[in-house]
């Protein structure tokens, strides 16, 4: 990234520096496409996952409704990130959209059958379906391919927020059948503020930003060349090491969960968890349900001990509401309040897991005392 930052040049300019910048962008596009199993022309660079989600949902709703005014309904899972949930709420409040929420099972799995039931009440009214690839809180991985089959039986496009999966699990846009897929660089070692929407060539989309006509006219705005280059490099490296890294992280995850559960006191993993599993839960996601205390207290106590983790979604931190994901999975408010999410990544090692496990008992005791005193 710093190498690319040393060069000036707007990728839309025709002079020498501009053409050099354009080359960097197009090479990066080829790398991102190769890593995602898409064609280069199917990659639209964005400022990250949130923008990709907004563009996918709003842009598809607008395009599908233009073609047939009956298509106003969005079928969406109840475990989505706020970048999807709040966009859907906005579209209902301001764009005349309707929504059918699809509930997950107790592990956070959104079954293709549940999606089918939601669609088949009135398939002709559905503008699009959106189901995330992997959940950011409990790490549950969805059967996106089977859900794409349901969508395509009815000629409906499927969007998948794959922000948590890309770089950590095999993600193949073409093979999976998804029509629109969101990704972001900062979940795989790249910089913040850059990502992509992979968009099938025949997917109809109305642009949300208008101006210079960059990115096939779908996403106007001068491109951040250095960030795009860094995204492509980080993604390429992540994908090259995906198998050994997933195995290594799942090993750390499993030791963390097993040791935390062994502390007793009713601690249990949230979401689907089976030791050694590499396909149904994100390898680097450990989620603990800790009865009798507040996840937020635990977070601050662990932070003071040098361990940084989160409760629900990091993006919700500071909002004292139990996670909508856990509630959708059928947990009570009280159960959901004691949630702790520990995420492991490329720089995490056994020493980090040891440090977490060493800090946990004292943090638990103090958090429980604080909860008891209230
Ligand atoms: C599942 C999911 N979708 C979307 C986002 C938002 O992505 P970005 O931070 O790149 O806007 C996040 C970020 O945490 C996420 O976990």
Fold topology:
Elements: H1 2-5, H2 16-36, E1 43-46, H3 49-67, E2 73-77, H4 82-94, E3 98-102, H5 112-120, E4 126-130, H6 144-153, E5 158-161, H7 173-176, E6 180-184, E7 195-199, H8 225-240, H9 242-262, E8 268-269, E9 285-289, H10 295-304, H11 324-328, H12 333-337, E10 339-343, H13 350-373
Parallel strand pairs: 2-3, 2-4, 4-5, 5-6
Antiparallel strand pairs: 1-7, 6-7, 8-9, 9-10
Helix pairs in contact: 2-8, 3-4, 5-6, 9-13, 10-13
The structure holds pyridoxal-5'-phosphate.
**Strand fraction:** 5-15%
What form results from the Cα inertia axes? globular
Rg: 21 Å
What is the overall number of helices? 13
By secondary-structure content and strand pairing, the structural class works out as: alpha/beta
Task: Name the strands of the widest sheet in spatial order.
Answer: 1-7-6-5-4-2-3
Largest sheet: number of strands, sense, barrel closure: 7 strands, mixed
Report the count of strand segments: 10
N-to-C SSE string, H for helix and E for strand? HHEHEHEHEHEHEEHHEEHHHEH
Q: What ligands can be seen in this structure?
A: pyridoxal-5'-phosphate
Gap between N and C termini? 49 Å
Stretches where pLDDT falls below 50 for ≥5 residues?
A: none
Which percent range fits the helix content? 40-55%
Mean pLDDT: 95
